Prior knowledge:
Radius of gyration: 22 Å
Amino acid sequence: MQERLQKLISAAGIASRRAAETLICAGRVTVNGEPAALGARADPETDVVCVDGRPISASVAAPRTYILLNKPRGYVTTLRDERGRPTVADLVRDAGVRLYPVGRLDLDSDGLLLMTDDGALAQALTHPSHAVDKTYRTVVSGDVAAALPQLTAPMELDGYRIRPAAVEQTAPDVLLVTIHEGRNRQVRRMCEQAGLKVRRLTRVSEGPLKLGDLPPGRWRFLQEDEISALKRLVSQKKP
């Protein structure tokens, strides 16, 4: 996540924030080899910040936070809503840091939502080139038998040809749908094209993460092996 240069320099113990401003104005601070301007920001995980030619170690940055939230229906996946609706930020205020949702779940959907302050990982996970698999427990109404061949075939949304989904029928009206992209309301729109109406949509997994029995509205910190698995996932896939 990007921070003001003054904060990064102060955190490194080089100078106070006020003194750091003086260093920046004097042209003694660079970001990725370019002179920095007052008010500039940088991500210590991805950018090289130097003072007088000496890099600030990324190790001085605050540790990143990664949590898994079971988003209930009725919450919007944003930090602030101009219409005054409840947001996922309301549910994770006690995490102690400002966290950002990775991807989205629409207002009427619930389930697994990753939230973090690791901007580099969030960007990698949501980049189309990485195609992180997401699985949704989908309760539907309609002719499921007729819909299955359509759901598992290539479909087109917004003029974009999406990859075939993996679909498992676990009950007469329940499907586990795994998609490889993350287009807007993709599972709902796929089901609609196949003649089904979605009555409940719950994301139960994303990449190596599993929702499990986490209650709605509750969250937990990711375990170290889960964080490592996410980082391996994006490092193995190339844009």
